[in-house]
Write a structure and sequence with these properties.
This protein is of the alpha/beta class and 297 residues long. It has a single domain, classed as Rossmann fold. Helices cover 44% and strands 15% of the residues. It has ten helices and seven strands. Strands 2-3-4-1-5-7-6 form a seven-stranded mixed beta sheet, with helices on both faces. The longest helix is centred in the N-terminal third of the chain and has 19 residues. The radius of gyration is 23 Å and the shape is globular. The termini are far apart.
């Protein structure tokens, strides 16, 4: 019996040794290493789950239902350009819109990733955490993305310290090739103006342009910003204007946002000005407030 026990122990030791050096184990180890590095480089505070998002019934003034619907219509229209710039009247309004869009796109199985810039949260105002944070989410939400990601890295242990364009190539562009999942998927970038510098904001938009130009049928971006003049100038540059639609929401000085009645023209068909009347939710006797929406192709 003692001999049999020793024989069994020897077999177990051999199996353990074989498994520990098998390609399968190496693959699992590599996967864990990549995922761990991405987690550590990601900005947890920039994720949708880290945002303050009250129930939809508690945010009618900040995220009007039809405003959200127009963004979703842009996303689903084949005539839309792959990038939508939303300029809202305040950060709270923009964030409410962004969170609601995330929720709606999740319900449809179309949400891919989000990054909520915030100058008051660690890692949430720096460009260097943007690409790893997005890639980390794409691993979970787009089938086949991780396999392509490990192939594109080629065992590169320094991928997180590469220049931003190289990170975009390795962590997003190359892994998106040969993806068979049916798109498009939606990526939300909120409060771009909270990114540390205007130079970094330009770089982010440049890299997003590369992504949508390479994968227009697979990925679309919504970028929400304040009405800051430098951001309007940035998006008005020809290289970005040719691939983007824009939505400007202007709020009256004496009222809050509410429901609207607005008929849109076709996306991407040139500049158009739409005027709508918002009816504030409270008080009920409040007069109609004129709101102007500018859509530009």
């Amino acid at each position: 019996m003692v001999a049999n026990s020793k024989w069994r122990i020897s077999i177990i030791q051999i199996l353990v040794s074989a498994l520990s050096s098998s390609p399968f184990t190496e693959c699992v180890s590599q996967r864990n290493s990549v995922i761990t590095q991405l987690h550590q480089a990601s900005a947890a505070g920039a994720l949708y789950d880290a945002q303050d998002h009250p129930p939809l019934t508690e945010r009618p003034l900040e995220a009007p239902a039809k405003t959200i619907q127009e963004v979703l219509d842009w996303f689903s229209s084949p005539e839309s350009k792959p990038l939508l710039h939303v300029r809202g009247p305040s950060k709270s309004t923009n964030s409410a819109i962004a969170c609601t869009i995330v929720e709606r796109s999740k319900e449809r199985g179309q949400f891919a990733a989000g990054f909520f810039f915030n100058s008051r949260r660690p890692k949430c105002s720096s460009i260097k955490h943007l690409v790893p944070t997005i890639a980390d989410q794409l691993i979970e939400l787009i089938p086949g993305f991780y396999t392509n990601l490990t192939r594109s890295l080629h065992g590169d242990p320094f991928f997180l310290v590469r220049p931003i364009p190289t990170q975009v190539d390795q962590l997003i562009l190359q892994p998106l090739h040969e993806i068979t999942a049916r798109g498009p998927f939606l990526v939300i970038i909120d409060a771009l103006d909270d990114c540390a510098s205007e130079e970094d904001q330009h770089e982010i938009l440049t890299q997003i342009s590369r992504i949508v130009l390479a994968h227009q049928d697979l990925i679309r971006f919504v970028i929400l910003t304040s009405p800051a003049p430098h951001l309007k100038h940035l998006f008005d540059q020809l290289e970005f204007r040719s691939i983007s639609n824009s939505l400007v929401v202007r709020q009256s000085h004496n009222g809050a946002l509410g429901e609207r009645n607005l008929t849109l023209g076709k996306w991407g068909m040139g500049d158009a000005l739409f005027t709508a009347s918002y009816i504030p939710t409270t008080p009920f006797n409040f007069p109609r407030i004129p709101i102007f929406f500018f859509f530009s192709g």
